[in-house]
Amino acid sequence: MNPSLVATNLGRDYATPHGLVTVLDGVSLSMEAGETLAIVGPSGSGKSTLLGLLAGLDRPSRGYVAIAGRDLAAMDDAEASTYRGRHCGFVFQSHRLLPALTAQENVQVPLDLARATDAAPRARAWLERVGLGGRHDHRPRQLSGGEQQRVAVARALVHAPAIVFADEPTGSLDRRTGTAVADLLFALAADHRTTLVLVTHDEALAERCARVVRMQDGRIA
Question: Which of 6, 61, 71, 202 is least enclosed by beta carbons within 10 angstroms?
């Protein structure tokens, strides 16, 4: 089985007025297709930086990340953006839905970018799957926090990505709603054998993953 994600000797430095600061150093890991991984650790340990590098949202100072066999750092910005759009899905703590669009239009975004001819019915079907078929024409401000996050989950999975990255996907939700959203995310990822990488402070959520990586001072502890 070929790994769906490989990170080798990742490092990330940032220039500050006081000199170069290393926030991530020497991190390597790999994941098989359909595997679930939680990244945990205290604030400032480098977990969100690691997620950003794995997702190709940031470029490493050292090392490389390959998704489905392609080195993201070897691509220019336009190519990397297109590749992420085809192969990756994203769920963030703050939902990041577009406020002017309806729930259905938000879910359609990845399909529209890919110029899918069946974008509307596929988006509508995914809203049905996350229990929001009757809210397809509602805008984010008309939805609860849990409903917005369910829209975000549908948007992340609608284009059948190889891998989904989730940054504190339940962090802004109450326990009951957060559990429901997590149930949905894990179930849908399992149904489609989607690789799932999530950052969380929630130990109970982390324990649902097949593997847990603990970060400390920019390294895997």
Answer: 71
Distance between CA atoms of 196 and 138, rounded to whole angstroms? 28
DSSP 187: H
Distance CA 170, CA 6 (A): 26
pLDDT of residue 70: 83
Rounded to whole angstroms, the Cα distance separating 198 from 168 reads 7
Q: Find all residues with CB under 8 Å of 210, minimum gap 6, and list them.
A: 35, 36, 37
| Angle, vertex CA 61, rays to CA 55 and CA 62, nearest 5 | 90
Q: Which of 201, 203, 197 is nearest to 42 (CA)?
A: 201
pTM of the model: 0.89
Please say if the pLDDT value at position 2 is more than 70.
Answer: no
- Distance, CA of 77 to CA of 10 (rounded, Å): 19
pLDDT, residue 49, reads 93
Calculate mean pLDDT across residues 71-88: 85
CA dihedral 26→82→199→50, nearest 10 degrees, is 20
Residue 13 belongs to what domain range? 3-220
Between the two ends of the chain, the Cα-to-Cα distance in Å is: 27
CATH number at residue 136: 3.40.50.300
In terms of DSSP H, where are the helices of the chain? 47-54, 77-87, 103-113, 119-129, 145-157, 175-191, 203-206
